[in-house]
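pasting input
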Amino acid sequence: MSRPIRTPARPTMGRRRFLRDLGVSAAAVPLLVGLDSLYAKAQVPTIPKKRFVFMFSPNGILYSAWRIPQAGASLDISDGTLLNDPARTLQPLSQSAGKLLVLDRLSLIGARPVYNDPTAPPLTINGTTVQSSSADGIPHPGGEQKGMGNLLTGQGLKGGDNNFGNPGLGNGVSVDQVIANVLFKGKVRFPSLQIAVMGTNDLYDYSDRQVEKQLSYTAPISPLVPVSDPFVLYNVLFGNATPQIATNLRLLMDQTVLDGVQADFTRLQPKVSSADWQLLAQHQQAVRDIEGQLTATAKASCSAPTPPAAPAGVNISDATATLTWTEVPGMTPISGKMLMDLMVRALACGLTNVVTFQWTHAEDNLTYPWVNNGAGLPPSQCNLTGVGQRNMAHERDPNLIFVDQWYASQFNYMITQLEQVPESGMPGVSLLDNSLLMHASEVSDAANRISDNMAITLAGSNGGYFKQGQALRFNSVFTPLAIPPNSDPSSYFLSDEWYTTAVQAAARDQATVSGPDLSNNDLMASILDSFGLDVTQAAPSIADPRFFHGLLPGVKAGS
Amino acid sequence: MKLGLIVPAGLALVAFACGGQTSGDLAARSGAAGGGAGAATGSTLDASSATSGSAGLDASLADASPGLEADGSLGGIDGAVIALPLLHLTATQYANTINDLLSVPPGAQNVPLAADSTAGGFAVGSAISDDAVQDYHDSAVAIASQVVSNLTELLAPVNCDATGGSACAASFVNAFAPLAFRHGTVDAATIAGLNQTFTIIAAAAGGATTVMGFTMGLQAVIEQVLQSPYFLYHLEVEEEAKGAGQLAVTDYSMANRLSYLLWSSMPDGALFSAAAANELTTPAQVSSQATRMLADPKAKVGLRNFYQQWLMALNLPTGKVGYSTQVLANGTLSSTSLFGTTSGVSLATEFSPALQQAIVDSFNMQVDSALWADSNAMKTLLTGATMYTNEALTPILGVSGASGTALQSVQVDPARRIGILSHPLLMATYATATTSHPIRRGRWVWEQIVCQPFPNAPPGEPGFQPPAPGMSLRQDYELLTSTGPYLGVGQASGNPGIPCPMCHTRMDPVGFLFEPYDTVGQYRTIDDYGQPVDLTKITVVQAQDPSLDGLTASSMDLAQNLAKSDEPVLCLMSNLYRFMAHRADAPVDYPIEAELDSMFTASNQNLPTALVGLTQTEAFLERLNVP
């Protein structure tokens, strides 16, 4: 090394000559060096006290019963009277109406056939012709699948090889995963939870990557497999491979340990300088506060619940037996409630802030034997294809009100459970206040396989962001397609005639809407905004300009 | 040993007031005694004292260190010793300490701790919040429940089990508490408090000799230890008990200073033994321990904690789009993902966690390789042509031949990149999702490599405007930052404001030298706006070392110039000093930093020499007890 060695005679202030150049006096040097004041308090990245819970129910809803009959682009529903009608789908939610934001007629634009099928006829929107397309040039199906793949991704389908044999999967990251990854990954134990209550009458496996079953995507065509077994979910959340600690023992441990820790602080006090003690005293006070919180309701509600009791005859250590049990017709409400309770507890405990809760999958033909006071879903009034939600939805059978109201009551259960949990550290605020719950299906009108003009119910304000006690109407046109009386409803929707008619109907609706047809992408942008995230940065695929127009107007409190 | 200068009280007070510490109370500090004496029955466990592996410190320190005097201290002028506030473990120190204490590696510690404060550019535990204390609680519970799931391993050093009940628990407490608290014998009251916790919890959980009762009792004991101030804080109460004034730090306090400086973790058995035998008293003893410790693999972990903060290269931002923009034959622009997707949608997901990890690992291996070399550490850091790649990273580095996920060394084309300055980690960190960011890249070099910092942009500065069609990003920035003075929001008219060029004439040219690297550090000739990358007429100005000024042809040219200058060495030594001292430096520290410069340079840039030198500064060897 040939470089001369610096001699100690080097002017020491030369090290910081630039400071002199800036005219900074020497006394201020420690504050400027490295632009980092001495012991600057770091910005503490706290975990946002916000949550997103998505509840999925399949096969759309009976729109005529769901729609609030009063006219108007915006209805005040806060006192519940507009919902409290036994003939209305939302009747079970009337007690929670002050917490609801009902969104009438948003469209899953990316689910339209024109975006999934390169052979579909062009669509004319406000005089502009949209050429048919799909991300990979493969014709993807025009059925419910497209809605399922689009619902939380805002994208069309991708992959697979044809319409019906292997329809592909959603072509984007889903909004729940965006929130989980950006805000909660590495901060909470489970950045997100995927829960699916098992169906009953068609044994299926959520790991088989069929688009009908998948809601949450980490990336295009990369769905997450949900948990269905409540005993497995319990172990995942609270088992932790250690002996289960009863709530009261855990509390005693915290009290004893934290008392002991406080004693350490007290013994230390005479040994340190008073300046140092100020930091330690602050720490000791925080220990005292935590001990107090642990005995208070917020933390008590967050302790690990006792394991769910095993139903008679079920060996919960036998996964196959449990799976079989959850698929017994009629068990869905029981296993569903167990899963909802565990979900609420996981949210209360801060184990997760993002949940997708899926009752079953698109096109499931459940018979719902527990509804109608245990009499089950009455036979189809249309009497074309027999009982079962899928079949009856394809006929817009009026008896579906039993199913739709039951799902509304389950959504109401989630709302009321979260309302009962106090937010830690925020007196008078409930978990519901700091959450956004969303209930939607994959189609609006299953008879048409159309995912335009959706029925979406939100609850909670996510920390004051969302307006509550309102019903908002968006795209003003909805043109249900009738199945011709002489057609076989089981195959009509496969026909070219239906396909063409449906596409034309969508185009007709589009042409009648004065502005752009507002979409689930717009809603998802608002949801991300409520978490402080910019959709264009956090989720470029949701901000796809073909489907996205901006934040959804009117949903933000104060707007 | 000569005593160093004591910072005037006024200066220290200004500094504390700025940090939100309670000011004005320094004079009221009481160096009350109390001591660490006690009648506890502490024994010592051997805390993972494996010392294998080797660092590049084979030359004898004295040979390589002209600044050292016969007693091992640095002669001449000493650095400042000021009364430092009490500090708790930083998140990194906590993670490493738990790993050494309970064999729970950082990756298996599932409760993230609150962010630390910073001083002098480095994390310090100078403040506490309710959130932080809650995190300590949650982490203690999680770690304790993890380790009691393997009682056999936990109890192996004390050779008993649950059937031993309270007696076995007491043995564990006697062995474990002195290790965790790191200051030798633990006082009897603290030991008794831990035993009492065991008794209460074991009884409530089924009895001390039942597996359940014993396990829960032990878990509670560990939770209590991990939340105790004796565990969480860098206490030097033995030194405080010696009374007011500036005095040498010895024994267990010195063992902790050494281990947290060089390992970012707790002392090992050898350090504890040396402390117990009063063998950490003279500078030479400290130097000898430091030399031993630098040969331990834990020194790599410790140094990494330093340089990841120095180089601000801890995390790679996610969500990179990674476009490569090309001009097509017909004149239109084509944006191609570097990751094989062309649809323009969802590219962010192609910048996969595996690739991001490879970039981070590649960077760490390159820096490790340079800094632990026997010689030429800074020169290699700046100009070395050896990089580390796996298959996923090869297209970005523009090399070939690597397969699989394991990183392997590769020679890069020195006409396109050398050293770390253009490493994908830095290029990606100092870029937006879609474009390079010359300002951030330039600022980084000035601030981190030659320690010539800038003020932050004034409030309300106009911000970036994308270039007009046909204009390159460089041309755009040259236009945006060429005028001034800029009047900040709220400034009275007539106030000249801060002229943009005052900073940007220095920042921007250096940043432009990195325009040949896109948002993830891939070499390119067309910028993000479709214009040719223009490296002509780039002039570095106002460098503290005038030899850096002048027309500079490329980032490789810059790196070579830097390697010939001594500014990067000075800057590294300043940063090491701040890291060691847990504070920003001040003019009184500069002479001692100059001594470190000389030592490092005389050793042919052998970094362990400088690290040992750090342990010979007064700021490290001594403390100031304020009466």
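fyi Chain B has a mean pLDDT of 81.
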